[in-house]
Amino acid sequence: FSAEDASRSDPEYLIEVFSAVIEAGARTINVPDTTGYALPEEYGALFRLLRERVKGADRVIWSAHCHNDLGMAVANSLAAVQNGARQIECTVNGIGERAGNTAMEEVVMAIKTRGDRFGVDTGIVTEQIYPTSRLLAQITGIPIPINKPIVGDNAFAHEAGIHQDGVLKNRLNYEIMRPESVGLDSNRLVLGKHSGRHAFVARLRELGLELGDIDMNRTFERFKALADAKKNVYDEDLIALVARESVRGDVRDRYELVYLNVTSSSMAVPHATVKLRIDGEEMLGHATGDGMVDACYRAIGDLTGQHPELQRYAVKAITGGTDAQGEVTCLLREDGYTVTGQGSHTDIIQASALAYVNALNKLEYRRQHRQRLQTEAEVGP
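Structure (tokenized):
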């Protein structure tokens, strides 16, 4: 049973309602901070009061559900645990409406790292946290802030000289948890162009990333292409490869990027030449634009006949170095439906084209699915 906006409700009324639903058979009582209004001291005190006054309180699991409007979701959830809550409703990366919900990775690692204060265990395999976080970011197109606790790029980085010296002498000086505990191997340099399939598969398994045989074949081919393009392939590169294949799944792509050439200079209008394979047939197109990405997208749009609204375009370097993969995310909107496209490549323009084509394929799949449902409705049972 869940009581909407419990943190701002009359406690006496909550006691009456919770007592009644427990008597009626409820086994889990959820106490939401629906608007993210509560402070940790208040939220913890509410749980303590309810557990003391509600009839049958010892027969149910008390659950916390917090929103992050004031940045208190994790702190409030932990305060609830300290006052008897044994379930936390949370999300990976804190994704949720408005400012988000309690971040799963943060409460899990707080409880694990400060077990001396909480005395409970989540049962979560924490080594899967980092790969899961990256996979979700790939699927949703919602980037992870670099300073995000636990899973951000800077979570285990040490810039100040005194910090770096301390870490080199003893990692526990400035690291309260090990990167390996969340699935981020400190030995990040793993593979290169001479690495074989066995080493590739073994490293994926070490990272907790496994695919079926068909996907593995396709992913290994993409890995070899990446290894030819850059000197060193890092764990982050592998996670991006696997995430992209996981997002793709078994959906058959209508559009495939075959060739791309873009030219630009300070004295000339950017020009793109694009070759796509559409329904198995190769087609060549040209376009100019306001920048290389715009020219590329215009050429792809002319070839496909699709011109959805580009709502967001973002670029991120997956790893460091001048040969790093660039990961492009674009959001396309058509007829009220929004899809996320992702593409990664050592060439940003190539990554941009791959992301756009990926999004167009998703829109095409959605369009075909809608037509299929309409046909079935017209035919009837």
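The chain has three domains: 6-89, 161-248, 255-373. The radius of gyration is 25 Å.
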